[in-house]
Design goal:
The structure holds 2 protein chains of 2 kinds. Chain A contains 7 helices and no strands. In chain A, helix 2 packs antiparallel against helix 3 and helix 2 packs antiparallel against helix 5. Chain B folds into 2 domains: 225 residues, no CATH class; 175 residues, Orthogonal Bundle (Cytochrome Bc1 Complex, Chain D, domain 2). The termini of chain B are far apart. Chain B is mostly helical. In chain B, strand 1 and strand 2 form a beta hairpin. The chains are: A mainly alpha, B mainly alpha. At the A-B interface, helix 2, helix 4, helix 5 and helix 6 of A face helix 1, helix 2 and strand 6 of B. Chain A: InterPro entries: DUF4142, Ferritin-like. Chain A: This is DUF4142 domain-containing protein.
Chain lengths: 213, 464
């Protein structure tokens, strides 16, 4: 029996990457506040939550991150076709590429924890999709980029929330890895929006500009 | 139904739909403190079991970032004459660069090559997910001895070596009694001893202010509820538990002004010396009087800017018309330590200062640009907040020990009077020595100082 237990723990050690709270590497997911741990949470030997469990923040994160990730890919594909500005088109292609990779990693983790993730866009993102489908030209580019700024702002806060309040080390690791990229996307979208605003201003004849004041 | 109303109603419906469609917010605990879910004994057992690992993680971070060895500046002590000042640059360089080669690069190159020294990055709380006030052992021991009040947490310990904290207990200088010098008698002021130490020195109003500043009140980690981090039902903490003897003991917590938790930066306790000349208060809030700040600390330093949690644990709100002004008046007579080499305008007296110190003053006011914000004539303050934009040098959003490295934004200018007494430096205590601050600003402001200029700046700051 003892031998079996030893073997079983060895097998678990091999299966579980060292990121599960047993490391002292400051880059690994940090321990949470046990004050917010749900009763009945299983713990590993080191008194950290055992792997493959989720707490309510993890579950909220899985939902919002999955829907947001789906929307990024769908809207990215749409914008890659419809955008007229080169910068917007390239940005859209990158969103669809980067977020596909992130979605794959997230979905692997989610499968392992046994939660059924949302498979379709929610109302908010569907409405955004419809709005974009109905607009064209410069208006489309503008709407897409403005939407992307808000989406990436929200995603950054969502990732920070998971890093601080989540319990599942794989999800926290995922959030930590993704956050710099998402903040990078946000800066790109803001730069494109600033560029578009400048162009729009330049296209208005000076006399009209005076009048608008 | 009137025609106008019939038109208006569908429009209102559309508005509601638009609002509903946008409703995808974060859960409430992204802003508010969640209610506890486990009984205290279960939380305590878990916290205690995690503690060795929590401390090892932070120790690993400190050792990666800093040279923590004991290298005091020869023949030089803090104002009370009890503790040496640590010298030398302690922030470690990344492999393959020197301070000179680094300062020759622009921010973009440093960011793209990942070369910003880790010690220049924001410093995480020892346990970022929990945060809260953490006191140095000397404070815990002395308050325990005098008051039998427990300031020890079961989940974390203080994380920084005593070498890099202010002398303890710090001396106390009063603007009302410059002739006396340090009036602390070498003791830590507490509710137990303040009366006998201060009667005859202070006015009744100042005495009452001091009593309130030394009276423990419930705090987020030290209270009666199951959501606490002290083993016993705690009487709470006092203002001077962190601002020991109206200076600082380097106790730290997390800024109450930012959410979510991972984005909050660490706050090193600021000294209250020279409060009489400080016009803005709080690193982020820029409150306009020490009265405002004193009143609101019960919501912020005590309860993380969460008035809901404060209400549950037993907040004490000092009376604005009576108690707050007395607490403010007491704080406003706390003086800086003597700086015998400075003249009344805050400039070095050439008959007293060394050549190196005078050279340092020239760098401070000229090439180093320090004096633009730390103006000598106004107690080395400018009563403004500034954004150093450190994020030009690193990729935002990296997670280190549970904290996400994000731009600090505008932070208030802190005084440099008596600065040798106040390690660690910067609002979060990420810099351990004055030489570290010189290298930090040399890089951030692209100053290109020579080694001689850097050394003279340190010598100058030691005179302040």
């Amino acid at each position: 029996m003892i031998r079996f237990v030893a073997f079983a723990s060895l097998a678990i050690a091999l299966l579980v990457p060292p990121a599960f709270g047993q490391t002292t590497d400051p880059a690994s997911p940090a321990p949470g506040n046990p004050g917010g741990m749900l009763p009945g949470t299983k713990q590993s030997a080191s008194s950290v939550p055992a792997p493959r469990q989720t707490n309510p923040p993890d579950q909220a994160f899985i939902h919002s991150a999955t829907v947001g990730g789906l929307a990024e890919v769908e809207l990215g594909k749409l914008a890659a076709q419809k955008a007229t500005g080169r910068a917007v088109k390239e940005f859209a292609q990158q969103m669809s590429r980067d977020h596909s990779a992130a979605n794959d990693r997230l979905s692997t983790i989610v499968k392992a924890v046994g939660i059924a993730p949302p498979e379709r866009l929610d109302e908010e993102h569907k409405a955004m999709q419809v709005r974009l489908q109905q607009s064209d030209g410069a208006q489309f580019d503008h709407s897409y980029i403005q939407g992307q700024i808000i989406e990436h702002q929200k995603t950054a806060q969502l990732l920070e929330y998971e890093i601080g309040s989540g319990e599942n080390a794989e999800l926290k690791d995922f959030a930590s890895d993704l956050l710099p990229t998402v903040l990078g996307h946000l800066r790109m979208a803001q730069a494109i929006a600033a560029e578009m605003a400048q162009q729009a201003q330049a296209e208005v004849p000076p006399t009209n500009r005076e009048k608008r004041k | 139904m009137s025609k106008r109303l019939r038109v208006a109603l569908p429009l209102a419906g559309a508005g509601l739909l638009a609002v509903a469609a946008l409703a995808d917010p974060l859960p409430p605990d992204a802003t508010y403190r969640p209610l506890p879910t486990l009984p205290l004994d279960a939380v305590k057992a878990l916290d205690e079991a995690q503690k060795p690992q929590v401390m090892q993680r932070q120790q690993a971070l400190f050792e990666r970032r800093y040279d923590l060895s004991n290298r005091p500046i020869a023949n030089f002590m803090m104002s009370g004459g009890r503790k040496p000042v640590q010298g030398g640059v302690r922030v470690k360089l990344p492999a393959g660069v020197t301070w000179d080669s680094l300062s020759a690069m622009g921010p973009n190159e440093i960011r793209e090559r990942g070369l910003l020294p880790a010690g220049f990055m924001p410093l995480p709380h020892v346990k970022q997910a929990t945060g809260g006030q953490v006191f140095p052992n000397q404070e815990i021991d002395e308050v325990g001895r005098q008051e039998l009040r427990n300031l020890r947490r079961f989940d974390v310990d203080f994380d920084l070596s005593d070498r890099f904290t202010p002398e303890f207990p710090p001396p106390i200088f009063l603007t009302t009694h410059p002739e006396l010098g340090d009036v602390s008698h070498g003791q830590l002021l507490t509710i137990k001893n303040y009366y006998q130490l201060m009667v005859g020195l202070l006015t009744p109003v100042q005495m009452e202010g001091m009593r309130l500043l030394l009276t423990p009140f419930p705090q987020e980690e030290f209270n009666q509820t199951e959501d606490r981090k002290s083993a016993d039902q705690s009487l709470g903490v006092t203002c001077l538990d962190c601002h020991a003897n109206f200076h600082t003991n380097a106790a730290f917590h997390l800024t109450p002004d930012i959410r979510p938790q991972a984005a909050r930066f660490r706050l090193d306790t600021v000294s209250l010396r020279g409060m009489f000349n400080q016009q803005i208060h709080g690193s982020k809030r820029s409150l306009r009087s020490v009265e405002d700040f004193t009143q609101f600390e019960q919501r912020t330093a005590y309860f993380n800017g969460d008035h809901v949690s404060a209400q549950r644990k037993g907040v004490n709100l000092p009376d604005r018309f009576d108690q707050v002004p007395m607490m403010a008046q007491m704080q406003n007579i706390i003086d800086f330590p003597p700086a015998p080499k400075l003249d009344p305008m805050g400039r070095l007296d050439p008959s007293k200062a060394t050549q190196q110190e005078l050279a340092g003053e020239q760098v401070f006011l000229g090439k180093g640009q320090c004096g633009q914000c730390h103006a000598p004539q106004t107690s080395f303050l400018d009563n403004n907040m500034h954004d150093l934009k450190l994020e030009r040098f690193y990729n935002m959003g990296q997670t280190v020990n549970g904290q996400v490295a994000l731009p600090d934004g505008a932070i208030k200018t802190l005084t440099l009077r008596g600065i040798k007494d106040s390690p660690p430096y910067l609002h979060d205590g990420r810099l351990l020595t004055l030489a570290d601050t010189v290298e930090f600003f040399n890089l951030v402001l692209s100053l290109k100082l020579t080694q001689e200029e850097k050394d003279s700046l340190v010598a100058y700051m030691l005179t302040l």
